[in-house]
Write a structure and sequence with these properties.
Radius of gyration: 17 Å
Number of strands: 7
CATH superfamily: Vaccinia Virus protein VP39
Number of helices: 9
Largest sheet: 7 strands, mixed
Strand content: 15-25%
Distance between the termini: 46 Å
Order of helices and strands: HHHEHEHEEHEHHHEE
Shape: globular
Oligomer: single chain
CATH architecture: 3-Layer(aba) Sandwich
Helix content: 40-55%
Structural class: alpha/beta
């Protein structure tokens, strides 16, 4: 594949292909997200920040941070935030946009083998990234490992709208409209073909909640945002862990 050819990941989620795909869409990623979510991405980011509830003096890991928009939102609280992603292109764009924020750092990291110590972070979070990991259950265990006892987990991820009619309309939008919107926005439309496939095959809210419990987290709960297009999952690492 030449550098100019669109890189398209598939449901095998080979890390190199997924990372390469995000490298190629990094420049226009945030702009395309605003268009394809009709501005809801900002509302979802605000809800995620409130759920994490960052405080000055805390150390927070934002895994799958992409261009760092979610990380910058967390850093405004005064907490020390580590924006981690496996895409060098996304991290470069993040540093270009948010590199001046003193309490925000960028680290290239594999979600299945995090380069951090045990019990390091007060809170860990992922937004729309767990779905792209080859082994999401292992990633949840890694997040558990690096979180301090009593620490917090927040996962915001595309999910399954519970209403049948809305779910049907949403799937039509993802399959037929979203890739065309991405191409009009000047982004790799094939990447958004993959996005649709990955959302369609991703487990529903209850299944993801069960995975979180299996990884050792307690107080697991979720709430739907925008009719269940995305779901905000929260949990805590036991204080005795």
């Amino acid at each position: 594949m030449t550098p100019t050819e669109p890189n398209r990941a598939d449901l095998g989620k080979d890390p190199a292909r997924v990372s390469g795909m995000f490298d190629q869409v990094a420049r226009g990623y945030d702009r395309t997200n605003v268009v394809m979510t009709v501005g809801n991405d900002a509302l979802w980011r605000a809800a995620t920040t409130r759920a994490v509830a960052p405080k000055p003096g805390e150390l927070i890991l934002d895994l799958g941070a992409g261009t760092g928009s979610s990380s910058a939102s967390l850093a405004r609280s005064g907490a020390q935030v580590v924006a981690a992603d496996f895409s060098p292109g996304m991290l470069a764009e993040g540093r270009r946009r948010h590199g001046s924020i003193r309490n925000l750092s960028f680290v290239q990291a594999d979600a299945e083998n995090l380069p951090f110590a045990d019990d390091e972070f007060d809170a860990v979070t992922m937004s729309y990234a767990l779905r792209n990991v080859h082994d999401p259950k292992r990633a949840l265990r890694e997040l558990f490992r690096v979180t301090k006892p009593g620490g917090r987990l927040v996962i915001n991820e595309f999910s399954t709208p519970p209403g049948r009619l809305f779910r049907g309309a949403y799937r039509f939008y993802n399959a037929q409209v979203l890739p065309r919107v991405a191409r009009l926005a000047g982004t790799n439309g094939e990447a958004y073909d993959y996005l649709n496939e990955s959302i369609r095959e991703w487990p529903d809210q209850r299944t993801l909640s069960a995975w979180i419990r299996e990884a050792g987290w307690t107080d697991v709960a979720y709430r739907n945002l925008t009719f269940g297009i995305v779901a905000l999952h929260r949990a805590r690492k036991p204080a005795s862990a």
